[in-house]
Design brief:
By secondary structure, this protein is an alpha+beta fold. 26% of the residues lie in helices and 55% in strands. Strands 1, 2, 3, 4, 5 and 6 form a 6-stranded antiparallel sheet that branches. It starts with a helix and ends with a strand.
Length: 136
């Protein structure tokens, strides 16, 4: 009876050790992937969205409450990789969608009151995105 009890404890110990090792590998792989997805800085305020990207793979979003007549002053430049900016009105229409290769500084006029969605999607990207609300 003592030997059987010891075998059970040994098997249980081995299973727990394998589970712990598997979890450690999982978190190591996924943790390092997550931390490498974005490197840089960002600021999300009620009237602005600032994104300085050293390296980004993935999507970052922000919302702004805007009013008819507001203007968004935008600086958008891509140094490497690809970075796509989309600004979507409350009704789902895209006010702007671009990749930062055209004009670096421009404005977007806001046609109606509501919550506007800003999405920045990067693939191995580096660059800057500054969006500032200017009330009219």
């Amino acid at each position: 009876k003592g030997r059987t009890e010891m075998k059970k404890k040994t098997v249980l110990f081995c299973l727990l050790a394998l589970l712990a090792a598997g979890l450690a590998v999982f978190f190591l792989v996924h943790g390092s992937r997550g931390s490498g997805a974005f490197r840089g800085s960002f600021v999300k305020n009620s009237d602005s969205y600032l994104l300085d990207v050293e390296r980004m793979t993935g999507t970052d979003t922000h919302t702004l409450e805007l009013y008819s007549g507001d203007v968004l002053q935008i600086h958008f430049s891509v140094e490497k990789g690809s970075l796509k900016l989309t600004i979507t009105a409350p009704d789902g229409t895209e006010l702007y969608a671009g990749n930062g290769t055209g004009a670096a500084d421009f404005t977007v006029n806001i046609p109606a009151d509501g919550i506007y969605a800003i999405s920045a999607e990067g693939r191995q990207a580096a660059g800057t995105l500054y969006i500032q609300k200017i009330a009219e």
